[in-house]
Every structure is written in structure tokens, then in C-alpha cells.
Specification:
The protein is an all-alpha fold. It contains 4 helices and no strands. The N and C termini lie far apart (about 55 Å).
Length: about 110
């Protein structure tokens, strides 16, 4: 009887360890997927920041392009504020808002199945 109880205890410990490993694995997978999404978003913003229209234009003309960028940025500010207010009322987290904004802006993000 004692040997049977000891074997039963060992089997339960093995089963609990297996369940624990399964839980850890599923948590790791979800964290990995989220980190992959955030990496894609950060790469998009990095590329968007360093590839600009003004870098491709020669020096005397890039002032006009910079003024155009400034005007389009200033015209875009009220739209961004309105969109952030809507997203805030919807209860989206900051990372979800960044992901949604990047996905709506870029056609490649629209095609990704994330």
C-alpha cells in the first residue's frame, strides 16, 4: 500500500510538472508574438523616420521640401489628436494604438496576418 501511494505521488508530480511546462510554453509563445509585433512596429517607425522625401532632394531644393513637410505635419496634428481621443475613449493601450496606427498607414501592415 505504501509503495502504491508513493508511485501515485510520483505520477502526480510528473503530471503537475507537465502541466506547468505547458502553461509556461503557451505564455512564452504569446509574449514572443507580441514582441514580434512590437519589433515590426518599431522597425516601421525607424525606417519611416530615416527615409524621408527631403533626403533625396539636393540642398537648395530641400528647404522647399522641408517647408512642405512642416505644413503637412501641422495640418496633420488635429487629425492625430482627434484619432487619439477616439482611441482613448475606446480603451486601447498605447502599444495597441501604435500598432493600429502603423497598420492603417502602411499597406504592408495591412497585408500582414498578425
Amino acid at each position: 500500500l505504501v509503495i502504491f501511494m508513493l508511485a501515485l505521488l510520483v505520477l502526480q508530480l510528473v503530471l503537475m510538472n507537465t502541466v506547468f511546462v505547458a502553461i509556461i510554453t503557451s505564455t512564452f509563445d504569446s509574449v514572443w508574438q507580441q514582441s514580434n509585433r512590437e519589433w515590426l512596429i518599431d522597425m516601421y517607425h525607424l525606417i519611416d523616420e530615416y527615409i524621408s522625401f527631403t533626403a533625396a532632394i539636393p540642398v537648395p531644393l530641400n528647404v522647399l521640401a522641408m517647408l512642405y513637410n512642416l505644413a503637412s505635419y501641422l495640418a496633420h496634428i488635429p487629425l492625430v489628436r482627434r484619432q487619439r481621443a477616439v482611441e482613448k475613449t475606446a480603451g486601447l493601450k498605447v502599444s495597441s494604438r501604435r500598432f493600429l496606427h502603423a497598420r492603417l498607414r502602411n499597406a504592408r501592415f495591412k497585408q500582414l496576418d498578425l
